[in-house]
Amino acid sequence: MTRRPNSSIVANPILVGTSTLLVVLVAVFLAYNANTGLPFVPTYEVTAYVRDADELGRNADVRIGGKRVGAVSRIEAVPTTDGKPLAALSLKLDETAGPLPADTQLRVRPRSVIGLKYLQLTPGDDKRTIPTGGKIPLANARGNVDLQDALNAFDTETRRSFAQVTSELGSGLAGRGPDLNLAIQSFDPLTDHLGPVMRNLADPATDLGGMLKGLESAAAATAPVAPQLGGLFDGAATTLHAVARVSDSFGSVIDQAPATERAAVSALRVAQPVLDDATTLVDDLKPSAKLLPAAATGLAGAVEAGTPVLDRAAPLADRLSDTLAALRGLVKDPSTSGSVVELTRALDALVPTLAFLNPIQTRCNYLGLYMRNASSTIGEGDENGNWFRFMPLLATPDNPYKGNIGGDLHFDPYVDWGQDGRCVAGNEKYAVGTQVGPPVNAASAPTTNPQTKPPAGTGGAR
Fold this sequence. Notes:
Largest sheet: 7 strands, mixed
Low-confidence stretches: none
Number of strands: 13
Strand order of the largest sheet: 6-7-2-3-4-1-9
Number of helices: 11
């Protein structure tokens, strides 16, 4: 019997090699195009516009809520009428990611510290949607500050200046706790009044930009006549010096005015109605007239001290042009109004916090007392260290870690920080028996605590 040859495809090396090569080519093709999407898979494609692609690369990830939903397939520069080109980003997204709401926002975000970027989409709640092939307008793009830009702001010179300012502030604030207390206390009415002021400034009807432009124009108009303004103040100083030298004569005239008035009343009784009005006027002027000699002397000293300053006003006016140019740029910046609005909101949120924190320091001086007592605690101890290093837990009747409540337990979970006008913390008196909550003598607690003094050699007590 004749045996037939084996006709299996495995037995043919040419077919096996061809099939293997074809599979490898298909795998390489799929791997190469994996970033731009697999073939024959439906996608949702839109075009997004941003002012600056910010080094966003082709095939960069597109994410929604941190999940990758597609990639940037192409980036093109689009010219505009104002001369500032836009970046058109062609997005190829998964079909499940669409359709996006019409108010979807986009932002270029850093993916890593080495400079990689990705595009973040934040869908809105608009009922309208963007169809396939639609566009996300430039108005929906949001800016982003790179970490590199933020770090570049603190260059060597800035860091050196910041260190010097910090050192000088430390020396200037040493031992001036009471002054800081007064300053913090003064912030309360300041913030109360500053809130409405900032709201008025942020109101478009106030035209803050117009006011700044007017100031810029006024400063530019006075810059050429700065030397003449200095001469004007020099002349005013001479005049006020002359008035100050005869201040005693002004006082004598004012002292003799009542006697002269009485003589005039006796001599001119026929003009009684007119003189009655004059008497009332002079009586109203007496308190102000007594202050006139001292006021004239102080004003003369102020003018004398201001004359050298005005002599330096001419060079200052020359340098003021750069400042005004920068101010003009600030006025034209569209983010200025938004900054004022956000500052107003921040001040509104700060008022309740200051109202709560002010009594802690201004009335009870808890920070000053803590710092004073902490230094003595740190400086005392034994061979094991200072008293700040451990807290012994003894088996006392009122140990909070025991299962039973001690007969002499004292515990106040609601510490009073001076908001009700009393400084209870640190002034509790021992009461026999169990006491949970505020002490029974809280109503008689002091309304203030002792004021602390600065260390020796840092200045007088404040």
